[in-house]
Amino acid sequence: MNSKRPVNLDLSTIHFPLPALTSITHRVTGVILFVGLIFGFWALDKSLSSPQGFETVSDVLAHNVLAKLVAWGLLSALGFHFVAGIKHLLMDAGYGVDLEGGTRKAQITVVISAVLVVLAGVWVW
User: Fold this and answer.
1) Do residues 72 and 120 make contact, with C-beta atoms less than 8 angstroms apart?
2) pLDDT at 14
3) Which helix (H) or strand (E) segment is 107 a member of?
4) Which of 35, 46, 68, 120 has the fewest CB atoms in 10 Å of its CB?
5) d(Cα 88, Cα 11) in Å, to the nearest integer?
6) Cα separation of 79 and 114, whole Å?
7) Mind telling me which residue stretches traverse the membrane in this protein (predicted)?
8) Is 54:47 a contact under the CB 8 Å cutoff?
């Protein structure tokens, strides 16, 4: 097949619409949450092992800035992933599958997720 169509392999020049960006970010936050399970399982195991382990985890989360950043990042990823997952479930049910509805749901997803990220930051810090 001899096609005369242009081929653009440079992804940095492609303008992705907001629904595509929220879908990609949903997948990225899923990977972040999967990797973040290592930190979560460590904290859970350590805190349930003994009273001293609980104090260790509490002390790390209270005084270590890096641990607070990790906790805030994981909570933020969880919030966005949850909201975007609800958006995808609504799309699977047939709501907002047109261009206008998809853009509106993507905007709502970003706004609700931003509120959840701020709330998670207030809770962690």
Assistant:
1) yes
2) 80
3) helix 99-124
4) 35
5) 24
6) 9
7) 20-44, 65-86, 106-124
8) yes
Terminal-residue alpha carbon distance, the chain: 59
Nearest to 43 by CA among 65, 77, 68: 68
Percent of the chain with pLDDT over 70: 98
Enter the DSSP assignment of 96.
Answer: S
Q: Is 81 annotated as a binding residue?
A: yes
- For 123, other C-beta atoms within 10 Å of its C-beta total 10
Give CA–CA dist 91/97, Å, rounded: 6
Query: What is the C-alpha separation between 116 and 57, in angstroms, rounded?
Result: 24
DSSP label at residue 14: -
Write down the pLDDT at residue 81. 97
Confidence of residue 30 (pLDDT cuts 50, 70, 90): very high
Beta strands in 32-94 (DSSP E): none
Indicate whether 82 pLDDT > 90.
yes
Report how far residue 18's alpha carbon sits from residue 110's, in angstroms, rounded to the nearest whole number. Answer: 9
Q: Determine what percent of the chain is predicted with pLDDT higher than 90.
A: 79
Amino acid found at 88: H
